[in-house]
Design a protein that fits this description.
The protein has 80 residues and is of the alpha+beta class. The chain contains two helices and four strands. It has a two-stranded antiparallel sheet with strand order 1-4. The chain is globular, with a radius of gyration of 14 Å. Bound molecules: zinc ion. The site of zinc ion has 8 residues, from strand 4.
Length: 80
């Protein structure tokens, strides 16, 4: 099972992010490809605002890293 960061709160998203047009992390327009980033949670009053959001493909630079992985080790792998 791959680790996935919890998307930002649905209420903090821009309209474009909420609509799935922009990346939920870096707000880039997703014209060249996107993948699901999970489900943003949130509510306004009685209304459930949770929605599936999207991120850059293959890897968004603003995407949060795994909290338990040390960046020094993860980034020193080199190219195969
Ligand atoms: Zn992005």
């Amino acid at each position: 099972m791959k680790w996935q960061p919890q998307p930002p709160a649905a209420t903090s998203l821009t309209r474009a992010q909420y609509s799935g047009w922009n990346c939920c992390w870096c707000n880039a327009r997703l014209t060249n490809g996107a993948r699901s980033a999970g489900r943003a949670q949130g509510s306004i009053g009685a209304h459930d605002m949770s929605v599936e959001v999207y991120e850059c493909r293959p890897q968004c630079t603003q995407r949060p890293r795994h909290p338990r992985r040390t960046p020094e080790k993860a980034d020193q792998g080199g190219t195969p």
